[in-house]
Amino acid sequence: MPKYKVLERSYIGERLVEKDELVEYDGKPGNNLEPTDAEGRRAAKEFAAEREQLALSQAAMRGFAANVSAEFARGAFAAPSAKTAPGPTAMEHLVKTRGEHVMADKGALKVR
Fold first, then answer.
1. Residue 13 pLDDT greater than 90, yes or no
2. For 2, 5, 42, 110, which has the most beta carbons within 10 A of its beta carbon?
3. What residue segments make up the domains of the chain, in order of their start?
């Protein structure tokens, strides 16, 4: 099991652990744990990569949400009136305006 030095008072494995204590922990290590063995360093490295990927995904989603909000603000998705045909969905509009090809497949959009 990976071993760590606790860097700040923490709740680990259903108990309160004080700073500088050594613990064995098989979960995902946070910034409050410093690896003290090879297994701990490997686990910390893997989880750091996982956190980085999550941060990139969240940033992409925030960017997409900001783009959709801007498009709504400028009126790109005004509700259709009885006299007009329905307009594109937010996703269809953004993909189309970015010059990517869109295909409909069983009700979902695929970008090529």
1. no
2. 2
3. 1-74, 79-112
